[in-house]
Specification:
single chain, alpha+beta, Alpha-Beta Plaits, Chitinase A, domain 3, Trigger factor, domain 2, 12 helices
């Protein structure tokens, strides 16, 4: 068949589809006849309902289905004939004028753009690296000690100090009035670990069991509780219990308790370093990947299909709504979430996706089976039973698709780093680990 494609603007195209009214009518009659075999109606036995009744009840909906099916097939055939890569779902509208005995429809849609990636040899990309130091291993072991600490009640004469676990009653008021979340009894927290606002944390230091104290507290402007953000409250605190922390010694017994095979401090340090190396590897990969993707977006020229941006924006809104629901937010299904706040990010995602797809196609950067296997095995090493994790991934097509996407992005990252001007930068271990 001959397909005429009309260019409207940039990526927007239009095709006129013509359908035979007779063919549609015959298909509608055939479907109504099949429907009459099972349809039920008062006063008639199943399969004995007159066609006139069936047509009256279901004729419109059946015709709507037939027209939709025929228009969809006609559009797919036309797009295939014209070798068009359609982006998104076409908008279909019926034309008032059509040839005798025919129905005509306009299909308006967008096509995927041509992606032009400029010469990358002059592009600069910062590639970061870091070293897992002995100090980093020491700090990690200290965290492990804190996770296994015990607490013992302090003598009554001693005041609360940093690292102590305290149990308190407190009540806060703003302008003499209580506020939501401002009162608690037998509330526990550990001094100096950032569980409370700094002013609150400092105020309880030095207090003894049975002692009460009143102090002012200024809530930050960006405090999560919007009702009290930026306001000053007066708190009354009564100390109920003070417990001193007792950290286990770093010895062979501690290593055994952590499940270290060798059961030695040396084995513990080696295991911690191995885990930190793995974590650093993934963080460096993520950070360098981000730098490469930023460079690609800036180096590519393309028009972005509006339909794909709209689809991605809708997906992000639904994701945000699902997140609200998971956090127990009331009426999350109907909460007003302005789509426009996601549009810039959605457009960037679509743009980047198109650029990466073109680079993968042009440079043959698809994920290979051995790369997928290695990535899954690397992921599994963070768990107690690696073999089970490997089976977990291999048994699910969606999880494997996610792994494939990551491997492809890694391939793209390595490919681009081999073409650009790489600016190597060593960052401190703490800075890398603290980065979001």
């Amino acid at each position: 068949m001959t397909v005429t494609v009309e260019t409207l603007e940039k990526l927007e195209r239009r095709i006129t589809l013509t359908l035979s009214a007779e063919d549609i009518g015959q298909e509608v009659d055939a479907r109504l006849k099949r429907l009459s075999r099972t349809v039920k109606a008062d006063g008639f036995r199943p399969g004995k309902v007159p066609m006139s009744v069936v047509a009256q009840r279901y004729g419109y909906s059946v015709q709507y289905e037939v027209v939709n099916d025929r228009v969809g097939k006609a559009f797919a055939d036309a797009a295939s004939e014209a070798k068009l890569r359609v982006a998104g779902t076409p908008r279909i509208s019926q034309r008032e004028e059509a040839a005798q005995g025919h129905l005509a429809f306009d299909a308006t849609f967008e096509v995927y753009p041509e992606v032009r990636i400029s010469d990358l040899s002059g592009v600069e990309v910062e590639r970061v690296s870091t070293e897992v130091t002995d100090a980093a291993v020491d700090r990690t072991i200290e965290i492990l000690r804190k996770q296994r600490r015990t607490f013992a009640q302090r003598p009554a004469a001693e005041g609360a100090a940093e690292t102590d676990r305290v149990t308190i009653d407190f009540e806060g008021k703003i302008d003499g009035e209580p506020f939501a979340g401002g009162k608690a009894e037998a509330f526990q927290f550990i001094i100096g670990e950032g569980q409370m606002l700094e002013q609150f944390d400092l105020a309880v230091r030095g207090m003894r069991v049975g002692e009460s104290k009143t102090f002012p507290l200024q809530f930050p402007e960006d405090y999560q509780g919007q009702d009290v953000a930026g306001k000053e409250a007066d708190f009354l605190v009564t100390m109920k219990k003070i417990e001193a922390a007792n950290l286990p010694d770093v010895d062979d017994a501690f290593a055994k308790a952590l499940g270290i095979k060798e059961g030695t401090v040396e084995g513990l340090r080696a295991d911690v370093r191995k885990n930190l190396d793995r974590e650093v590897k993934f963080r460096l990969m993520s950070k360098n990947k981000g730098a490469v993707m930023d460079a690609l977006v800036k180096s590519a020229e393309l028009d972005v299909p509006k339909a794909l941006v709209e689809s991605e924006t809708e997906r992000m809104v639904e994701s945000a709504r699902a997140d609200l629901k998971q956090r127990g937010i009331k009426d999350a299904d109907t909460a007003p979430i302005p789509a426009e706040i996601f549009q810039p990010q959605a457009e960037r995602r679509v743009r980047l996706g198109l650029v990466v797809a073109e680079l993968v196609r042009a440079s043959n950067l698809q994920a290979k089976p051995d790369q997928l296997q290695k990535h899954i095995e690397d992921l599994s090493q963070s768990y107690e039973r690696p073999a089970e994790v490997v089976r977990y991934y291999l048994s699910d097509r969606q999880r494997m698709a996610e792994v494939e996407a990551v491997v492809i992005e890694n391939n793209v990252t390595e490919h681009v780093l081999g073409q650009v001007k790489v600016l190597d930068k060593v960052v401190p271990f703490d800075e890398l680990m603290a980065a979001a």
